[in-house]
Design a protein that fits this description.
Blueprint: H1 3-27, E1 37-43, E2 49-55, E3 62-64, E4 73-75, H2 81-116
Antiparallel strand pairs: 1-2, 3-4
Helix pairs in contact: 1-2
């Protein structure tokens, strides 16, 4: 496998992690005190894509706790659903672009083998 295709494969894995982290945020968006995470993809010196996952420490909105009659507050999740949607769409486009590159490479190699073979 060529180095270029290995880079595309690492990008596919990174975009998959990004979608997984975002999906976890959405799944837990209604959980009290849940802190969302963010997956950041970066390209290293070797052109491989790596993912760094960080957790947001920002507070979620405070609301009155309906289970208590003393007026106490509880913190909700800090997940922003709109931001997660944008993150998932962006990751999907990146994934599709890298998958198409691999597909084109395989088609080109296949055509070359047909000509040579």
């Amino acid at each position: 496998m060529s180095l270029s295709i290995q880079n595309n494969v690492s990008a596919l894995q990174a975009f998959s992690k990004q979608v997984s982290v975002s999906a976890n945020n959405v799944a837990n968006s209604l959980s009290d005190d849940f802190k969302s995470s963010r997956a950041i993809n970066t390209q290293g010196a070797d052109k491989q894509v790596t993912t760094t996952i960080t957790q947001s420490n920002t507070s979620g909105p405070l609301v009155e706790d309906p289970l208590k009659n003393d007026g106490s507050l509880k913190e909700l999740s800090n997940t922003n659903i709109a931001q997660e949607l944008v993150q998932q769409i962006s990751a999907q486009h990146g994934f599709n672009a890298n998958a198409k590159t691999i597909q084109s490479y395989e088609e080109t190699i296949g055509s070359l083998f047909d000509v040579v073979g």
